[in-house]
Predict the structure.
Amino acid sequence: MAYLEDLDIQQLLTLRAIAEEGSFGGAADVLRFSQSAVSQQAAALEKAVGHQLFNRPRGPKPASLTEAGRILLEHTELILARLEQAGQELDDLAAGTKGRVVCGTFQSVSVELLPTVVGQLLLSSPGVEVELIESTSNADLIELLVSGKLDVSFLVGPVNDPRLQIIELGQDPMVLLAPRHDELLMGPDPEVPRSAVPIRELHEQPFIAQQEESDHVRVETSLLAAGIKPRYVFRTNDNGAVQAMVRTGAGYSIMPKLTVDETDPDIRIMATDPALPKRTIVLALRKSGPRIPALHTFIDLSINASRERLDAMPD
């Protein structure tokens, strides 16, 4: 049985060169070795595989491969081709045109930011693979990030974790959603719609809200602090379902602006007076570990997309 642990790449290159050139001298010229060095490589290769690989005729006759040599050459061609492919892929990885980025996200970022980010990344680097994992839980996304299952993740800030590097992307205002012609939107002059709804007027009004583990806690805390107690008639973490229920007149909702379809003609998006605290959107990465160039490109594109869709962070 042949044991190939002692093979090295140079020996395989020598095998191929002898087969292609038909002589040890020709192989030496191609490889830029001395003929004695080629002979030593060939002998070491035969010893490693335990078979005679070369027919070494005397005189002007060309060197040729034995049957064992032909078998090994077939595998050598495959090995060298895979190594060449590996080298090309490593070059592409270093250039940022290849690699894999696994990103954590949540619903509104998936809808409003990531299509731009991923689209631009794949347009410039089609060899890059992007995988997205969505969750409603900051804690779950952080655990996936720290464990190495994510390379990067969007999170709702503030996030204080010494294991993470945090990049603040911007702030997302909280807005009131109401049916297009709802009377709450009208001020003292019926002909002049309000620019903002006094928050006191939301007391005990019907509300469509998100589930406890999402942005709902932040909204409810702010409302209660202002002395406002909403009357919840429906809860869902589906942003589209929240907006659809508001559209029907079933209730109002206060949501981060990024979660809202602003093109909906049957919805009015209003500020509240006073305004509720904005939520902060951040990008998180592990502080330690390698980062491929494609990941740096993904981060830069995320920062640029956020500048267009989010309010700037306060100084």
User: Anything to note?
Assistant: The chain has a mean pLDDT of 87.
